[in-house]
Write a structure and sequence with these properties.
Elements (H helix, E strand, L loop, with lengths): L1 H8 L12 E6 L2 E7 L8 H9 L6 E4 L13 H8 L3 E4 L11 H8 L4 E3 L3 H7 L1 H8 L4 E8 L4 E3 L11 H12 L3 E5 H7 L15 E5 L10 H4 L6 E4 L7 H5 L3 E3 L6 H10 L4 E4 L3 H9 L5 E6 L9 E2 L15 E9 L2 E8 L5
Parallel strand pairs: 3-4, 4-5, 6-12, 6-13, 8-9, 8-12, 9-10, 10-11
Antiparallel strand pairs: 1-2, 1-3, 7-14, 13-16, 15-16
Catalytic activity: 5-amino-6-(5-phospho-D-ribitylamino)uracil + NADP(+) = 5-amino-6-(5-phospho-D-ribosylamino)uracil + NADPH + H(+); 2,5-diamino-6-hydroxy-4-(5-phosphoribosylamino)-pyrimidine + H2O + H(+) = 5-amino-6-(5-phospho-D-ribosylamino)uracil + NH4(+)
GO molecular function, one term: 5-amino-6-(5-phosphoribosylamino)uracil reductase activity
Family: In the N-terminal section; belongs to the cytidine and deoxycytidylate deaminase family.
């Protein structure tokens, strides 16, 4: 199952609106076939693994998510496993999608195939969290990235910010972008930095959707996102009273949803199939997401330099009056990245 989970992660950022699933077929201790969800969500992992195996009769299938049981654009994977004659299926976690939700397990059981559920479930639940939240909470998984000095600043008082962190850290950020369906920023970041918001230096990979929250939609001409909107998707969220025609003519998709209502933005993204969002700022948007309780993972790059109190803080005000009001996180990882330090955090739960 550890192998199946690692294979499934290869699909992160490449398979939305579907989950990134991994599958391994084993017989007599020999791996017959391996698979992970194909780009765009198809073929499914089980289909690829079965095709690679050729003959999977009497094999054990290890799958990171309950096999689908419905006829969509492809036949049910549960039926494919039955038809292949597998002897046993080990499933990491169930699928909450109403079209599946236990039906795949029941289909396998009705065919007389033993099914074990829960192997490395905690890991699988984390890997599939974006898909699960899209289905059950109508919002994608959201990672908030911060990159700052030792004193939590992201720019000097004159707005100069390139570069605070190292080239090694920036390369890691590109890898993180590649594992998300979309990259999200606010209008202020687009105006100040004119970012490309793409994945570079990772070979040929599917590019994430670029989401920009701009209430007035008054972004200046000549921006990278405008020049490349037909090459890499640009989704703009704006107030309903703003005319988006100028951006639509450039190839951007527009959503008449006020960006101030971040929960409604998340719902719109989930309805559009997005499962994982990587937010790169700026400080106002990051603070608003924390205030709204929409941050599922926080990744912080810290550089060994200081700017001082007149610099721009990594987060704007979030209305914390007492420490009891402060959003709390539990550290899940820490590592050196060149001269910088990367720390990863998840929201604290009551038991923490």
């Amino acid at each position: 199952m550890a192998l199946a989970l690692s294979l499934g992660r290869r699909g992160m950022g490449r398979v939305w609106p579907n989950p990134a699933v991994g599958c391994v077929l084993v017989r007599d201790g020999v791996v017959l076939g391996r698979g992970w969800t194909g780009d765009g969500g198809r073929p499914h992992a089980e289909t690829i693994a079965l095709s690679q195996a050729g003959n999977a009769k009497e094999a054990t299938a290890y799958v990171t998510l309950e096999p689908c049981a419905h006829h969509g654009k492809t036949p049910p994977c549960a039926q494919a496993l039955i038809d292949a004659g597998v002897a046993r299926v080990v499933i990491a976690t169930g699928d909450p999608d109403p079209r599946v939700a236990g039906k795949g397990i029941a289909m396998l059981g009705s065919a007389g195939i033993p099914v074990d559920i829960g192997c490395r479930k905690a890991e699988a639940d984390l890997d599939h969290q974006g898909f699960f939240q899209k289905v059950t909470q109508q919002r994608p998984f959201l990672t908030l990235k911060l990159a700052s000095t030792l004193d939590g600043r992201i720019a000097t008082h004159q707005g100069h910010s390139q570069w605070i962190t190292s080239a090694q850290s920036r390369r890691v950020v590109h890898a993180m972008r590649a594992r998300h369906d979309a990259v999200m920023v606010g209008a202020g970041t687009v105006e100040a930095d004119d970012p490309m918001l793409n994945v570079r230096g990772m070979g040929t990979v599917p590019q994430p959707v670029r989401i920009v929250l701009s209430g007035k939609l008054d972004l200046r001409n000549g921006l990278h996102i405008a020049a490349t909107a037909r090459e890499q998707p640009v989704w703009l969220f704006h107030r309903p009273d703003v005319d988006p025609l100028r951006w639509q003519n450039r190839g951007a998709d527009t959503f008449a949803q006020d960006p101030k209502d971040l929960r409604a933005v998340m719902v719109a993204l989930a309805e559009s199939g997005i499962t994982r969002v990587f937010c790169e700022g700026g400080g106002t948007l990051g603070a608003s997401l924390l205030q709204a309780g929409l941050v599922d993972e926080l990744v912080v790059f810290t550089a060994g330099c200081a700017i001082g109190a007149d610099g721009t803080p990594s987060l704007q005000a979030i209305g914390v009056d007492t420490m009891d009001d402060a959003p709390r996180f539990v550290r899940t990882g820490i590592q050196a990245v060149g001269p910088d330090v990367l720390t990863c955090w998840r929201p604290a739960t009551p038991k923490d």
